[in-house]
Amino acid sequence: MLRQLAYFTISKSSVDKTVDNLETSFSSLASALMNDLKTREKLNIELKAEKSLFVRFNDSRVRQSTETVEGRISLTLMSEHKTLTAELPWSFDFNISLKQCEQVKESCRAELMSLRSQVAKLPQDPYQVLPEGSSTSKEIVDDLAASESEIGQNLLSAFSDHPSCLTGLLTVGPVIRAFAHSQGASHWFSVNQFILNYTMGSLGAPERSVKGFYSATRWDSSELKKNLLASERHFQLMNRNGVKLAKGNYRVYLAPAAVYEILQLLAWDAFSERAYRQGASGLSRLRENKENFSPLLTLVENFGLGLSNRFNEWGELSPSKIALIEDGELKSNLICSRSAKEFEIPGNQANLRESIQSTEILPGQLPSADEQVLDHLGEGIYISNLHYLNWSERRSGRITGMTRYACFWVQRGKIVGPIENLRFDESIFNFWGQALEGLTTTRELQVSPLSYEMRDLGGALVPGMLIKSFSFTL
Amino acid sequence: MKNLLNSLKIPAEWIGLRKVTENWQLCSVRNEKPESSLHYLNSGVMVEVYVDGYFGYCATPSLETAAVQGAAERAFKQAQVFSQHKVAHLPLSVRPASVGSFRSPFRLSSQSLDLGEVHHRLLRVSQKLKISEKIVNRESSATFGDVRFEYVSTNGADITQDFTFAFSHLATTAWDQGVVQRRTDGGFLAHSFQSGVEALAEDILCQRGELVAREALELLTADECPEGRMSLLLAADQMMLQIHESVGHPLELDRILGDERNYAGHSFVKLKDFGHLQYGSSKMNVVFDPTFKSELASYGFDDGGALARREHLIREGRLLRGLGGLESQARSGVSGVSCFRSSSWNRAPIDRIANINLEPQSASLDDLISQVERGVYMQTNLSWSIDDFRDKFQFGCEYGRLIKDGQLTQTVRNPNYRGRTLEFWHHLAEVGGPSTLQWYGSPNCGKGEPNQLARVGHASPACLFHDIEIFGGQNRG
Questions:
Q1: Interface confidence: ipTM more than 0.90
Q2: Residue B149 to residue A83: CA distance in whole angstroms
């Protein structure tokens, strides 16, 4: 059955003409390649592209600056139950000329011919997902309201306000994802955004640092100032005498950034149907009804947050929301169409990795202002950030990791001083289970700053969490 | 490349061009069904421009003269602005005018094997892994290809390096009555080398696979690893991770200089420690070695043109030298090595672990075991976590054997250990000899802002440590 789905969101006050030019070039390429297909051949085409300025800084001075314009085209040919993909560079700037567009077409056409000759030699793939339907979507967010150089200048001004204090990375520019297939699906996602990801603290005392993060699709220098001031307040607290805690169980408050670190670990395989079937999901006991999370916890994959493209590697549009955990119960795993075929179950248009990308944890009743959170914490550890999480025993949901940055010992609702960082080893079925005492009313939007090979999309909207008991081992 | 460089019209003191061309084939099979097949091509140029002690970078995927000229102009403008706010004035000597080449050793070229043949080979290997109905998941994958780095500069550097790689991975999951155990072939992509596709021969893969499947079944009925402080004997495939996380990363000079504070972290090592700090026991000798050509991160020159040489980082436990290229050496005043590397054309180079090897001594594996009254022999990394100063760590392995009164006894599952880096290396009691030495690699070391992956190699013998906190998969903490 053919599905017709259309989904449009366009928000732009200033049009980036080079990105528009890229969209036209991509459409033209897709048409040309679809015309080259032989009978019974199917083709998926994906584009990932970005135009980026990276400014890396250390102690409020510039360490390295890099500009890049790049794109990658992926061609997936399906023929006689066999599948083969080629990935090749989009070898031109976004402001591609007609002549260059023809050159891109020719190199893709040549690659398609190569794929055709090789795919015949492959074994048949019984779980092959063929293109279906002709869904379309277009999401464009291009409202940055400042040029890259203006944002760079703002950053340099911030350096002068905080000398010897800021280390991290500024990333600015558009990120694009596009898709087309031979049955007519066509998708475009483009977001022009910046990420200022920083640590406030001096090289002379690196253990006394705080983490800051400011990302949006619209630059606002007054918001930058507010963000830095908030970090400054925590930074002043780091000047208090340090507190060395023994290992053991403590009451803790996890700030939203710390909760996001936990979600990033879960993104690996925790909600993947395929991983569950292989015994590799850290939430297996939830699925097997051997454990439940707290009824306070509801976690939803929500593409309405605008953090990531809704279409996957097959051009399928994910539902706008997928309830994964509802009132503590597992409602659904992420099931891509390939897994649906393999395990003969309905899919929910998940991506190939079956990973969470644009997630929200619903808020709770805990007041969010620092003082009120500390009051509720009473005596325990305020954890601003976590670091280097990993499963220490996946089947039982045990996770190990470290506290990092501005983590404080709190007594009678008042911050005493920063702690020496501690290692924890704790089961998620405990700290998101019977030990979960509350979630804050307000939440923070956390955006993925990762850029391995190319910039990531995705993130989460998360509250802070109060945990009755959390086990520290070193 | 020289013609391209000579055509650029930029009033800069120095310009460098680094072109990278990649051609890879990747395929994976799971449960005797093809999972993915990919032909990966990548190419582009990074233009570096030097202005007043600062390098500006601009990357372009296009090799057309106009595009590279445009990139050079942007790099130049950027350098003019940011050089006024630079963290350090870098002398131009950090880009030596080296001339030379490097070539990976190989017998069978990447082009001699097509994806179809690789697939069918992996399917046959996967079938061999199915030695029981309890082996519910069988994975086999192969990645092979060529990468060419070309580097020219206006002060006369002219370097071409041709790399040929072959990576393979085998894994099985055994599942019975609620118990799940995963066993791999040395760890994820641990068999990654500079090699032709002779490394992907079917008989080699089958031989490795049979052991993986047998041991996965063994783990199903094994006891949990015991808890307590006792001796720890680490096989080479876990030593790889131990060296990587608790020697390689802490010694990166750019990390010590604070560049990584916001992402990968800092280090407990201070600049004043070089030449003085007793990092571990006198049995500990660690070298940076780019000269063993098959090891994954061997090369002739780093991405700044510095000649790659073998150097001791730690000798008889004493810390001598940092893992830092010429830029970090200039900033810190500390001796380093040629390790200024980028993942590809679209990233600026930074200090990276390359090949970091622990030198063997003389003990056989039996000798090492005979020295243990009570302990665990652990193989193959499963889980890893370390703090942002590279101090407090916790590592888990796939497979363990108890050692009692100098003898290997029963298999144990979920073996884990934790410790603090300096204390751990001071507990190094004995280092195995050449008979225990193994080479491994990983193409996935992550670091940097923006992020980059690097290929790394680690060779190590088996090593014995005493009085280490060990635990298994039961209530702990």
A1: yes
A2: 31
